[in-house]
């Protein structure tokens, strides 16, 4: 069965939000952050709240938890009731007692949500301590019990571990254990799997479903990932700029969305089907990487430590005008390879041939002439531009380093602004005046200004909303077409890789496990790891953009 | 014209008008008061040669240890010198040493810190040297320097600066260590920017806010250290009045005439209090954690 088709008409309503309005202070004279939204969740039901950044998803969850930032956001209308209790009428003290006991929340980043200096077992126990009067041994028994329920291995050892000693998935399990230990009626999960790898994400999603089944918890699941929605939702609410656009049972929404915004949102979800192969390249490869090895650490003052072998004998080449995707989960070594190619770090051994010269072991000075052929776009558009510099200054920096006159560089920068779809006068503004997608365009323009042969895009669209993601991918494609740039695209997202790459290279723990044409690798994976990656991709059997099952033409 | 129409009696009004400048209003009353006090001290000190009614070194054997009188507003010291003139002029050396020590240690510390933070090879070596410099007590160092070179303003500035430098270096280095990992710094590297360009144009601006704050603390502590050194007789020569050596000379007569310590001490405390208050305000205003990202 493709989707959940459980019926909740008879179940009792757990959360009922009606016409909720949340506003900024009256002095701001801005439109409300939440504009009269309504939402119901019944016992045992999973409701997904989707929307792009700034749509008000998180504000909704904070309003339910009674955790809206003081003096910044105010509930100015509507009601929130939890099984008949009016949450807005509760005193802060009563609300505090209600949290964890009746409503619990898990967050995106378990590392920051856990206290780094307390053992995780004690942190779960603290929840019991502050909300119940159980004796110490009973508390401990309950903690061990819930830790077993979230399938943590070697519970006694994990109980005594600190957060940094656990993996991301284990930390999220701890968060879930902490949230569910008091058996709340409602669990709010705010992007709980966004920071996790796909395979871990799959495990966490099935864990939440399993525990929900067992305890009959109502779940409000906030996410921007349509794949996850398809996987877990009973019904879906779509939000945009503080308005509730549409809500429907999952299958209805995916098959037959009523509103334009929902259609647009779904259409932007990249397909897992690889793009049609482009004609095979002619000529020599622009970039050849041979037997690239990178070992971090090691050395040591008196004794040689083994170090971490982050990239093992990585070999590949890319032809002019083609896009190579390097795909893998965190710790696979894909970013290490990218940083080696960029020569931001020096590889331990191996060759990196850029237009026939080996740049792997060159010094800073020797590298300079090669740098202009090799440019990079980073993941986080908020950090990849110097916040103190105007966009224009950032854009001319590179060309001026290579002898162009500032006036000519600036003229070229203005042209580039138009090419990436921004007004020319953007040059005089500062990065903080632009949105994430616009900043990524600026970062791309800065790289392209150098007229590089190779552009390394390190998770360049991972921090963007899907609709923006699609635009940036289109832009990269267009630039490649126009300028013949070779792109090395590093990503953890198979959907993105399927969209843009001609060839794909799959890495696991520093080793290339599979490589070949994107169509072959993604449609017919040979290696177990590639297969497990594809299987873990949420919503993989659904073609979002065409509102139907994959392959149902 | 408008200026002329303001009657002198309305000084209070002009203070109020000053308060209505948006930037100053945000400051709050405490820091504003501190700024005014400090400004007054600096102006008085700068104008002291004209404000002082007497030569601070002129001895009047007949007028030893007198109380306040019309010509000597704060009375005289054991040598019959005018205490008022001495306190006014004494501030000059104190402030000069304070500002000198703060500027020199911030500049040297900034350079070393940038280098230590950016070049990993040099980092360990530089930081160990800094650790050992930090272990030198400034008072002992000052006594040694004065013993070697004789008492002079330079010796005192050096003595205060050397142990301060490592603190600045550590601060700058820590900022550089975080900033150098920023993608925009790596992007600059990829754009072929030279090392000095990355250091001074991309990294250095990040250190300015914490350095301004640190600078005010160094300024305050340098003024205080100078006073301690002079008080111990290890500071500048006693021929040059400073708040520290005026107090040192007054020490023996403390029971008979406490004003000898009271007035320079009061000036010193006011000065340091207002510098520290301003430093705190600068920290609150410049702390990036208080600034909202993407605003």
From TrEMBL, chain A:
Domain ABC transporter: 15-266, 287-534
Cellular compartments annotated: Cell inner membrane
Domain of life: Bacteria
Primary location: membrane
GO BP, one annotated term: transmembrane transport
Membrane topology, from the record: Peripheral membrane protein
Keywords: ATP-binding, Cell membrane, Membrane, Nucleotide-binding, Transport
Gene Ontology molecular function, alphabetical: ATP binding; ATP hydrolysis activity
GO cellular component, one term: plasma membrane
PROSITE patterns on file: ABC_TRANSPORTER_1 (PS00211), ABC_TRANSPORTER_2 (PS50893)
Regions annotated as coiled coil: none
Family statement drawn from the similarity comment of this UniProt entry: Belongs to the ABC transporter superfamily.
Descriptive protein name: Peptide/nickel transport system ATP-binding protein
Organism: Thalassovita litoralis
TrEMBL record, chain B:
Superkingdom as given in the UniProt entry: Bacteria
Pfam families (alphabetical): BPD_transp_1
GO biological process: transmembrane transport
ABC transmembrane type-1 domain span: 91-279
Similarity annotation: Belongs to the binding-protein-dependent transport system permease family.
Membrane topology, record value: Multi-pass membrane protein
Localization of this protein: Cell membrane
Any single Gene Ontology cellular-component annotation: plasma membrane
Name of this chain's protein: Peptide/nickel transport system permease protein
Transmembrane segments: 27-52, 93-119, 139-162, 217-240, 260-279
PANTHER family (UniProt xref): ABC TRANSPORTER PERMEASE PROTEIN (PTHR43386:SF6), OLIGOPEPTIDE TRANSPORT SYSTEM PERMEASE PROTEIN APPC (PTHR43386)
InterPro entries: BP-dependent_transpt_permease (IPR050366), MetI-like (IPR000515), MetI-like_sf (IPR035906)
Keywords assigned by UniProt, alphabetized: Cell membrane, Membrane, Transmembrane, Transmembrane helix, Transport
């Amino acid at each position: 069965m493709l989707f959940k088709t459980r019926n909740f008409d008879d179940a009792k309503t757990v959360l009922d939000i009606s016409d909720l309005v949340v506003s900024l202070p009256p002095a701001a004279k801005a439109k409300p952050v939440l504009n009269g939204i309504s939402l119901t969740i019944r016992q045992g039901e999973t409701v997904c709240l989707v929307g792009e950044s700034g749509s008000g998803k998180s504000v909704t969850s904070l309003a339910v938890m009674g955790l809206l930032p003081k003096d910044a956001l105010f509930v100015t209308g509507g009601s929130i009731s939890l099984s008949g209790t009016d949450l807005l009428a509760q005193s802060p003290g009563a609300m505090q007692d209600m949290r964890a006991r009746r409503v619990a929340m898990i967050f995106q980043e378990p590392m920051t949500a856990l206290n780094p200096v307390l053992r995780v077992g004690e942190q779960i126990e603290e929840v019991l301590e502050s909300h119940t009067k159980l004796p110490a041994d009973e508390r401990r028994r309950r903690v061990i019990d819930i830790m077993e329920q979230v399938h943590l291995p070697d519970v006694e050892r994990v109980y005594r571990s600190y957060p940094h000693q656990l993996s991301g998935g284990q930390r999220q399990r701890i968060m879930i254990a902490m949230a569910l230990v008091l058996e709340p009626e409602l669990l709010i999960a705010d992007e709980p799997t966004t920071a996790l790898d796909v395979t871990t994400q799959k495990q966490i999603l099935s864990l939440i479903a399993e525990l929900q089944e067992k305890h009959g918890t109502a779940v409000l699941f906030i996410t921007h990932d349509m794949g996850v929605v398809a996987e877990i939702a009973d019904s879906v609410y779509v939000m945009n700029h503080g308005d509730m656009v549409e809500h429907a049972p999952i299958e209805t929404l995916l098959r037959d969305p009523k509103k334009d915004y929902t259609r647009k949102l779904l259409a932007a979800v990249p397909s897992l089907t690889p793009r049609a192969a482009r004609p095979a390249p002619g000529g020599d490869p622009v970039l050849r990487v041979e037997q690239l090895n990178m070992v971090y650490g090691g050395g040591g003052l008196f004794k040689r430590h083994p170090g971490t072998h982050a990239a093992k004998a990585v070999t590949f080449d890319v032809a002019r005008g083609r896009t190579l995707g390097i795909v893998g989960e965190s710790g696979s070594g894909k970013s290490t390879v990218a940083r080696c190619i960029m020569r931001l770090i020096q590889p331990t051994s191996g060759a990196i041939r850029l237009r026939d010269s080996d740049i792997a072991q060159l010094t800073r000075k020797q590298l300079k002439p090669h740098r202009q052929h090799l440019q990079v776009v980073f993941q986080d558009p908020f950090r990849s531009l110097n916040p103190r510099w105007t966009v224009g200054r950032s854009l001319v920096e590179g060309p001026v380093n290579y002898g162009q006159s500032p006036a000519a560089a600036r003229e070229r920068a203005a042209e580039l602004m138009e090419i990436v779809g921004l007004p020319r006068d953007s040059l005089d503004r500062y990065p903080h005046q632009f949105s994430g997608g616009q900043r990524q365009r600026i970062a791309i323009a800065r790289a392209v200004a150098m007229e590089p042969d190779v552009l390394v895009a390190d998770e360049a669209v991972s921090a963007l909303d899907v609709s923006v993601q699609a635009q940036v991918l289109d832009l990269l494609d267009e630039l490649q077409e126009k300028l013949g740039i070779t792109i090395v695209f590093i990503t953890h997202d198979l959907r993105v890789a399927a969209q843009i790459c001609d060839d794909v290279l799959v890495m696991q723990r520093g080793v290339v496990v599979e490589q070949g044409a994107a169509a072959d690798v993604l449609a017919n994976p040979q290696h177990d790891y590639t297969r497990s990656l594809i299987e873990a991709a949420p919503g993989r059997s659904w073609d979002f953009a065409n509102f139907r099952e994959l392959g149902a033409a | 014209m408008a200026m002329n129409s303001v009657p002198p009696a309305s000084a209070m009004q002009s203070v109020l008008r000053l308060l209505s400048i948006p930037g100053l209003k945000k400051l709050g009353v405490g820091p504003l008061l501190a700024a005014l006090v400090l400004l007054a001290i600096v102006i008085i000190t700068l104008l002291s040669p004209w404000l002082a009614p007497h030569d601070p070194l002129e001895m009047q054997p007949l007028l030893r240890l007198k109380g306040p009188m019309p010509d000597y507003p704060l009375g005289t010291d054991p040598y019959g010198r005018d205490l008022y003139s001495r306190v006014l002029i004494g501030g000059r050396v104190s402030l000069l040493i304070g500002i000198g020590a703060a500027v020199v240690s911030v500049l040297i510390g900034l350079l070393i810190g940038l280098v230590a933070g950016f070049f990993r090879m040099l980092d360990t070596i530089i930081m160990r040297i800094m650790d050992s410099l930090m272990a030198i007590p400034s008072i002992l160092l000052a006594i040694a320097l004065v013993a070697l070179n004789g008492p002079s303003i330079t010796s005192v500035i050096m003595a205060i600066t050397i142990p301060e430098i490592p603190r600045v270096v550590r601060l700058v280095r820590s900022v550089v260590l975080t900033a150098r990992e920023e993608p925009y710094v790596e992007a600059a590297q990829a754009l072929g920017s030279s090392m000095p360009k990355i250091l001074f144009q991309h990294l250095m601006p990040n250190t300015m806010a914490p350095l301004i704050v640190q600078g005010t603390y160094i300024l305050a502590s340098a003024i205080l250290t100078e006073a301690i050194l002079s008080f111990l007789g290890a500071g500048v020569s006693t021929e040059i009045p400073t708040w520290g050596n005026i107090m040192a000379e007054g020490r023996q007569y403390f029971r008979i005439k406490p004003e000898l310590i009271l007035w320079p001490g009061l000036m010193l405390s006011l000065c340091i209090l207002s510098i520290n208050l301003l430093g705190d305000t600068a920290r609150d205003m410049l702390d990036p954690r208080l600034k909202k990202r993407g605003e």
